[in-house]
Design goal:
The structure holds 2 protein chains of 2 kinds.
Chain A (H helix, E strand, L loop, with lengths): L5 H29 L2 E3 L6 E4 L2 H4 L4 H34 L3 H12 L6 H12 L4 H8 L11 H25 L3 H9 L4 H12 L1 H16 L3 H6 L7 H11 L3 H33 L3
Antiparallel strand pairs in A: 1-2
Chain B lengths: L14 H14 L7 E6 L3 H18 L2 E6 L2 H10 L8 E5 H9 L27 E14 L24 E4 L4 H10 L11 H7 L3 E5 L2 H10 L4 E5 H9 L4 E3 L6 E10 L6 H11 L2 H11 L2 E2 L8 H4 L8 H7 E2 L3 H18 L3
Parallel strand pairs in B: 1-2, 1-3, 5-6, 5-7, 9-11
Antiparallel strand pairs in B: 3-9, 4-7, 4-8, 4-9, 4-10
Helix pairs in contact in B: 2-9, 2-10, 4-13
The chains are: A mainly alpha, B alpha/beta.
């Protein structure tokens, strides 16, 4: 039996990796190529080459949708982080096995229900006659209208994303060396100061990674804004669908897909230096 | 239908020759039990209704099994385009103006009308093109929850959708805004061809729109929950919800309701063209049409279909040439197929924000 060399391992891993990348690049190239074709109304075929599809992006509605997508993604990442960190912290640091199990089950179970089911549940919660407004009415408060608003979409997206964020943060927090926290406490730091000066900076890679993941995947959210937004709140994916599958305008849908792709890559590229700066600031370096 | 193919071995000298002859004989006499007609259709009630009314009778008469493959309108169109020339389905049932896209892209083959004699007894509107035949129709029309609107509220004209009572109450389909666009154009003295005359009116409608629905399911959910107690919706959905005890009133405006026709076409490249023609002819049979339309609560294409009065008298069900003339707004498939992208884009850019 031949010896397994580093070279064998490299090629064994590199070849599938290159093949997978080639498939993704080919698909992306196909979308890129499609964006330059002329749309022919009443036909599924496309015409000759044109830049018209890109010029349509000048219309204010498309810029609005792109900005809304950024805003909704950023708010989802921020709220998700704020709500998930305490849960992840409790999962890692609680001394009660029962509480840990309860929190893990509570956090992870939503992953086993599909996005559509969870989104429909939010329709029942946020609707005019839904759970939230029933509670408000019972408390003699005015009902609120959250369905078909950005706030409603963000709420549902935060709920949808929290399990993933909790898992990422719990992993990061579990890697924080507790000796550093004990040292800080022995030197007189109060628990909150220990958290702020030691635990949080050391868990920052998880915070940044989690926020980046949630931001990027929210950029491509479709079902939640489609159902909770009710056509009044549009994100880029919804526009792609409307152009491609309702208007049959696949060339313009390809342009919008490229915009979404560029926006996601561009914002993630900006994320790294910003995160680095934040990490340095929090750790006092 | 199981046919036996008997091959004589007399005179066959070698085993090899026997094998060749058997292979040829098997190819020439395929067992009918293996014959299967594959039909592309929407899922749920659409498939169930077509199965109960048409497919079961077809199998009974011909011995050919029917298999349905289901999916959304555009998903199926996209799959058909990808499989062009080697179709997954022998027949496709879809909305008439979408069938126009199948036709213009060469996905449907020209029909042999001599093999569809029942078409002669259908309303002329059934002959959508030489490539697709309408099987039944429905309307997209205003409907409202009687328990959630003020007492005495009625919709007698499309213009009533612009009334102040409807502020923040109206639901419209986002996948096809053609109904409200055509209505606005007509109210402004235009038509589908010069729809832009209706733009000022459409823009005035914005405050009344609460949400856009994306599917039959979301339309029904919005109506059931009362989020949009007034909708422009598919009459069949309203009848279905009404039968479930939801108090919905369907209005046929004095200008008429916008007709939708579901049509059938035969896939280019199918090996089951003869059976497919038989299926279409059977689907237009008066008895089958009656059964189908009583299940769907839709208008038959066969002039000889006799619906029960409780179905025939429902709003938006047309069973006479006079009703078609007075109550139906029918838009040419070609105009609709070519205009829909422009309508849709305009609607997204101007009405959703």
């Amino acid at each position: 039996m031949p010896a397994v060399t580093r070279r064998t391992i490299f090629f064994g891993l590199a070849v599938p990796c290159i093949l997978a990348a080639a498939v993704l690049v080919a698909a992306l190239f196909y979308v890129f190529q499609y964006s330059f074709f002329k749309f022919i109304p009443g036909s599924l075929d496309v015409g000759g080459l044109t830049f018209e599809n890109f010029l349509r992006l000048e219309k204010p509605v498309y810029l609005d949708v792109i900005l809304d997508t950024f805003l909704i993604s950023a708010l989802t990442a921020i709220f998700c982080l704020l709500l998930s960190y305490p849960v992840a912290y409790a999962i890692v640091r609680t001394s009660s096995e029962g509480l840990r199990t309860f929190l893990i089950v509570l956090s992870v179970t939503p992953l086993f229900t599909g996005e559509i089911v969870r989104t429909y549940a939010w329709i029942l919660v946020l609707g005019a006659e839904g759970f939230l407004n029933s509670v408000l009415r019972a408390a003699s408060l005015s009902p609120v209208s959250l369905l078909y608003t950005k706030a409603g979409v963000v709420m549902a997206l935060v709920h949808f994303s929290m399990p993933v964020m909790i898992v990422l943060l719990a992993t990061a927090i579990s890697h924080v060396n507790r000796d550093f926290e004990k040292a800080a406490a022995n030197l007189g730091a109060r628990p909150f100061t220990v958290f702020l000066k030691v635990t949080l900076p050391l868990s920052l890679p998880g915070v940044v990674g989690g926020a980046a993941v949630i931001f990027a995947w929210t950029m491509s959210a479709f079902s939640t804004p489609q159902l909770i937004g009710g056509g009044k709140v549009l994100m880029i994916s919804n526009l792609v669908y409307l152009q491609g599958f309702s208007s049959f305008n696949f060339p313009f849908a390809a342009v919008l897909s490229l915009v979404a792709f560029a926006a996601a890559i561009g914002s993630l590229a900006l994320f790294a230096p910003l995160a680095g700066r934040l990490e340095r600031k929090l750790s006092g370096r | 239908m199981l046919r036996l193919c008997i091959v004589s071995k007399e005179g066959l000298m070698t085993g090899r020759l026997v094998a060749i002859v058997l292979a040829v004989a098997m190819a020439a006499c395929p067992a009918s039990a293996q014959e299967k007609l594959t039909i592309s259709i929407w899922g749920g009630n659409w498939r169930d209704g077509a199965n109960e009314a048409i497919a079961q009778e077809f199998t009974k008469r011909t011995g050919i099994a029917v298999e349905f493959i289901t999916g959304g309108t555009m998903d199926r169109l996209t799959k058909a385009k990808v499989a062009k020339g080697r179709p997954e389905a022998d027949l496709t049932l879809t909305t008439s103006h979408v069938a126009q896209l199948y036709m213009s892209d060469g996905l449907f083959e020209k029909l042999d009308l001599a093999k569809i004699p029942n078409l002669r007894e259908a309303y002329p509107i059934a002959a959508r093109s030489p490539y697709h035949i309408g099987l039944y129709s429905y309307v997209y029309t205003p409907a409202f929850r009687t328990d959630l609107m003020p007492q005495g509220f009625e919709i007698k004209s499309w213009r009533d959708l612009w009334g102040p009572t409807l502020k923040g109450k109206l639901g419209l389909p986002d996948f096809d805004p053609s109904h409200i666009i055509i209505a606005a154009a007509m109210l402004s003295g235009g038509s589908a061809q010069n729809w832009k005359v209706g733009i000022p009116l459409l823009e005035q409608l914005k405050p009344n729109i609460k949400a856009f629905y994306q599917s039959d399911a979301t339309s029904q959910e919005l109506m059931k929950s009362g989020e949009t107690p007034v909708q422009v919706l598919l009459s069949i959905n309203a009848f279905h919800q009404s039968s479930q005890g939801i108090p919905i009133k369907i209005a046929i405006p004095k200008e008429g309701a916008v007709v939708g026709i579901d049509a059938v076409g035969i896939s280019t490249g199918t090996k089951m063209a003869a059976a497919a023609h038989q299926f279409i002819d059977l689907a237009l049979d008066p008895a089958v049409q009656t059964k189908l339309c009583e299940i769907y609560k839709c208008s038959p294409m066969s002039m000889r279909a006799k619906l029960k009065p409780e179905v025939a008298n429902l709003p938006g069900i047309f069973t006479s040439p006079e009703q078609w003339k007075e109550n139906a707004i029918v838009v040419d498939d070609d105009i609709r197929a070519k205009s829909l992208p422009e309508w849709k884009s305009w609607f997204t850019e101007n009405m959703t924000r």
